[in-house]
Amino acid sequence: MCWFVWGGGGTLKNAYHLSRNGLNIITLPKTIDNDIMGTDVTFGFDTALGIAVDAIDRLHSTASSHHRIIIVEIMGHRVGWLALGAGLAGGADAILIPEIPYTIDKLAESILERVSRGKRFSIVAVAEGAITVKGANKIKALEKKLPNAEGELRAGLKQQLNQLDSQYRGSTIKMAEELQNITGLETRVTILGHLQRGGTPSAIDRLLATRLGTGAIDYIKNEQFGIMVAVDGDQTRAVPLQDVAGKINYVPLDHPWIISSRNLETSFGD
Length: 270
Prior knowledge:
Layout: E1 3-7, H1 9-20, E2 25-29, H2 45-66, E3 69-74, H3 81-90, E4 94-96, H4 104-116, E5 122-127, H5 133-145, H6 151-168, H7 172-183, E6 187-191, H8 203-221, E7 227-232, E8 235-240, H9 241-244, H10 256-263
Parallel strand pairs: 1-2, 2-7, 3-5, 3-6, 4-5
Antiparallel strand pairs: 7-8
């Protein structure tokens, strides 16, 4: 008997534990966050990306007619694939992602520079896991202490990390207030939330899911279990669960989407 499992990072970890305990497991990478290691892309990502881009397109009308800053909070957990892709495709003027810590002053500076050029509105695409430079530095300092910590000390450090995470991430409302105070421009927030997780799947996601599902048949025939069926160009390949479980696919800082955004003078708040 073979068990199919599809889902994101947490699901992969559970699947790996089941596999280690003797179940014949084959997983498929499904998450809107696109944060699974070992595969070119996950199915669900393209659909969510399209929803986010459509939202940014619609918000351009309000931003331009009312001369506002509009902040669009986009899902993605602790990685920036969705916000980056949607911001670039939707023509956002600033994009904030977890991989590139920001400062509110740098973000405000980029918006005021647009104003000086006669641009009377700005769209800011913000990943829900975006973090300030101050927060990122504090978290890194604590993370360095974790490997040598044990018992109550380790538990205390983890609690502090959770507190810092809550304090410096996901503060979109606070960001809007600070931007409005610094720039003097009316600032509004749109949080897309779980709207990105529903709706009709895109054609690309349907084709991708079908390709992965039918590709898994060959691995079943070969009794190859304990794997994730990954996208590898135009092909699929089997990736051992132990190689991907618990690992996160962050946006590389030299990714073409980041390079293209910077070439378009899109601000990352850094």
